[in-house]
Amino acid sequence: MKTAILSFFLFCASFSAWAAKPLNVYFIDVEGGQATLFVSPSGESMLVDAGWDGFNGRDAERILQAAKDAGVKEINYLVVTHYHSDHVGGVPQLAAKIKIDHFVDHGPSFEHGERPDALFAAYEQVRQSGDHIVAKPGDKLPLKGIDVEFVTAAGEVISGPLLQPGTSKPRQKAGVLNPTCATAQVRDIDPSENSHSVGMLLTFGKFRMSDLGDLTWNKEIELVCPNNRVGTVDVYLANHHGTYSENGGASGSPQIVQALAPRVAIIDNGAKKGGAPEDLQIIRQAPGLEDIWQLHSSAAAGKDNAPETYIANLANPDEDAQGDRGYWIKLSAESNGKFSITNGRTGEKKDYLPAGHKK
Question: Which partner for 21 in 29, 41, 125, 139 could form a disulfide, CB atoms 3.0-4.6 Å apart?
């Protein structure tokens, strides 16, 4: 009994110490792919995707630079949202330079052919060097210091509303009827890896953030219609890099954006990939939105781009390789819901008060 009580108090002391430290998130520029490094207050790390293969190891080096800045010496959890080249391609190059303890993915690939099979085989070989976890909706990742819950994986979505960590109560607006579902227009069925993306909600105290990989239109609607299963977030990492099209590959539906109602949206786009004006316009209609941040100025978006203050990379690497430095966007969140975002290009930082606080 005494041992159990002592263990409980030690856990409480550890949690209190973690809560006093920030959650740091690096949105790393991999030119229109994804590589997002989370550093928990406990010191454990989670990397979501590893960018492209090729490019002389460019993306692995950019991830390592962020890891060095964060004081991370190994990746505790690598989450591969899906097996497209801009997400899983960089894993072998990265694994050759830094230890990866756990590999998290949705299981077998849903695409086949010479290129998809080669990408999956290269990843699968590297995956053998660590522990393998198959993500399933409703499961949680045992990352100390923050709550990481899978809401989508392998084409499946959570069956009911997310609960507040450690309680039986739904999260804010989770389980509530989504009125925008009445006008939802489904697209062509997308059988690709995108629609099978591993998607997560991350919670640190009162701070909430979504990362749904490249989840596409119909699956977004399934997740938040007729009821919003996820609830609202402070930060929305725009699905599929802010990609928009008139077919099944579209992402960023009004239904998902209105349901999440983010205060801030971050788009991990490239100069010529993602950052579509249609997506930017949909995001700007989110209730309570304060800002949009972009990893790159989008050539397609033109005047619809965010102000330059909120864009990490302004140069088009195809036109000015020297001007594209791969600057990241860094987010630091406190357990009370306050967070800040820093532009790696300029060093300028903007603070955001906890939700509901007056400016």
Answer: 41
